[in-house]
Predict the structure.
Amino acid sequence: MNAPAHIDVDSRNDPTPRDLAIVVRDERFNRGTAPRRWWAGEPFGTAWHNALSATFPRGEAFFIEAVKAHREGAPPKLEAEIRAFVKQEINHTREHIAFNRLAEDHGYDIKAIDKRVEELLALTKGRPAIANLAVTMALEHYTAMMAHEFLANPQHFETSDPEVRDMWRWHAVEEIEHKGVAYDTWNHATKGWGAWRRWRVRSLVMMIVTGRFFKNRWIDAMMLLKQDGITGWKARWGLFKYLTVTPGVVRRIFPAWLAYFRPGFHPWDHDDRELIGLYEGEFTDALMPAE
């Protein structure tokens, strides 16, 4: 059952849309089979998205805890946003566990990636909670950027396995809906900070996150390509071309990434909810109802 959580705006200065509804879509995907190379029968898009998916179960649990750690004293609007955010992320975790199991059934070593993520997250233990929130805010911007790109440009998934495509589109819609939650939680948690300090910390964290994100996902995708029998320059060039040329997701999201460094930036500076309407109107019939 889809449960809308309507968010009331507390302030005229709040950039979050006044009529925003964060909807918890309790959907199920990938309980059957899919081709090994589900991304258009091609290994590079398959490897990249498999590498991303392998990080989501632990990564999204990290996001949930980072945001929940700063909900005390939040205004009613933000409290409602956080509750809806948590519910959506729990469902995303469940569906990516199912998807990862499907990839493992095809012989990909997803558990090796999961283990590395576990080891990296262990390094955050004992770190100030506000640092984890800053990392979450940066990574949530990445998910929102990629979500927009996947929905705005159908070429990313138009020839992929239909059910896998529907899962990624479903996930993308909800990432767009809650793209401001971590950021607004950060603003709430750092309300005693000056504007310069806020900008400096979030900008520095984004630079660090960007380097680690691409380094680790590249390593993971290379490992998966090796398991597909693709190594050396062919693997490196193929993945580079996928990310920067066709369909070129990294090239396409660069302007949105750059916008994060603008003083006064907020994720809802760009209201892209029309993509949610497209999904709801065009793809609802393809969804597997909740069990």
In short: The two ends are 10 Å apart (CA to CA).
